[in-house]
Amino acid sequence: MFIKIKSLRSTWKKAIIIFLIIQISPLLVLWISPIRPIVDNSAEYFLGYLLYLSSVVVGFVITFGLLYDRLKNRVNENIVNKSFNRAKLKFNSNIIFGFSTLGLLLMIYDRVFVRGIDYSLGLRNARYQWLYSEISSSIWSKIGNLLIPFGYIGLWFLLVHKNNLSNKQKIQLSIAAFSTIIGHAAINGGRSQVLLGGVLWLSIKIVLIFKHNFNLERSKKIIRKYLPISIGIGFVTILTIEGISESMGIKEYVTDFAPTLLGTVESELMDMWDYFGNVGYVFIFFVMYLFHGQFSFRYLLSISEKSGSAFWGTLLNPIIEIFKYLNLPINSIPKDYFTTQYAMFLSLPGSFYYDGGFVGIILYSLLLGMLYAFVVVKIKFANCVTGYTLAFIFFVLFYIILAPIMTATGFAYFYFIIYSFVALEVINRIRFRKKTNWLI
After folding, report:
1. Which of 125, 122, 145, 143 is nearest to 133 (CA)?
2. Which value, to the nearest 10 degrees, does the dihedral of the CA atoms of residues 137, 200, 317, 63 take?
3. d(Cα 387, Cα 99) in Å, to the nearest integer?
């Protein structure tokens, strides 16, 4: 009995610690940076954030306790041991590699030969050529968008089933995963694919932490091992895709760009970063751009007139046209609603506030905490984790990890990643006529 209680406490404490680290770390990073919000309403902002954190924790603890009491006696009962054997690993590796590679090639064909995008002028310029092209996307682009997301699943197999993969399969999956994430981002001249790839990697690590009882000390070692690589990729991505002007110093660029993200630069604090040179300024730019959704939240607290829906608008974005057709009163935030159209991100707590005020923060956060508890219990005690289950797990984890930045569904390609896990599960059931346990 004591062991069960200890295991219970260890699991929910670990889950809460992970959640709080994810939510609070960006605030600390912003605090040490020289960037400050243009609206100074700290009391209301921290009240809203405190309501968000505490409500998620309360919803999690209550739900986790109820679910744990029901499921703890089912552990090891009727476990589905039909995991990925050699035949299934070979089949799925070929599917992931073949689909993602073909999708990337089709996307390149659409951009270069159908739309005539000139990439010799740089990725940033190519992005604007694509966005403002009068030529609509071809069937090749649509097929490519359906096939490319399979490459993201390569990360799952590389991290979860690495000990059972052959060298050939590891090479296939590595090419599929990284060419999909980096290659697709380069073709679109965007950033979201790289960010979503990083979030998926972190989500998989969190799943493994809960499933295999990785202690927090081991998690710290993992973070120390991969954080420098992640930061390096982030810097290269920002420098490449944003195309920081060579005619202007990076420090001046950051200062001039801050107001477009509802921020302002504290000159005295900025001068302290001179010691780190351009590396420090790039870091500041990276932090400012990634977490300016916090500034958007503060800005919302200073205005009374709001239109549309921030949370439900993005959640239902794929079927928003259907809602309009049915004359249902729901829309996402107008693009020009803020004082500047460049403030693109709104943190998840901010979207909760946008839709329901402080009461909305409490209610939506309680629901998020309940879903988080369900995910943790599902990972820990489920007898079979299928591709459908993983799609739901990642849906919730993406929301939690991206909360300090923006609503997960604000990234259009998020839905494609979720779809890919569902689609691969369907393909496996058609091929093997039975469900497969993706996580053992």
Report:
1. 125
2. 160
3. 17
Residue 214 token pair: 């990785």
How would you classify the pairing of strands 263-265 and 35-37?
antiparallel
Pairwise pLDDT comparison (221 vs 434), residue with the higher score: 434
Determine how many CB atoms are found less than 10 A away from the CB of residue 156. Answer: 26
Rounded Cα distance, 213 and 203, in Å: 15
pTM for the full model? Answer: 0.85
Question: Could you read off the pLDDT of 39-76 as tens digits, one per residue?
Answer: 888 889 999 999 999 999 999 999 998 887 776 665 54
* Sole residue written with tokens 């803020």: 338
Strand, coil or helix: what is 188? helix
**Number of other CB atoms surrounding residue 114 within 10 Å:** 16
Q: How many degrees, rounded to 5, is the angle at CA 231 between CA 227 and CA 236? A: 150
Contacts (Cβ under 8 Å, ≥6 apart) of 255: 265, 270
The confidence score (pLDDT) of residue 271 equals: 78
The pLDDT tens digits of the residues spanning 226-257 come to 555 555 555 555 554 445 444 456 777 777 77
Buried/exposed code over 46-56 (b: 16+ C-beta within 10 A; e: otherwise): eebbebbbebb
Cβ atoms 357, 52 nearer than 8 A: no
- Residue 54 to residue 62: CA distance in whole angstroms: 12
More confident residue, 177 or 340: 177
What is the rounded distance in angstroms from the CA atom of residue 184 to the CA atom of residue 344? 21
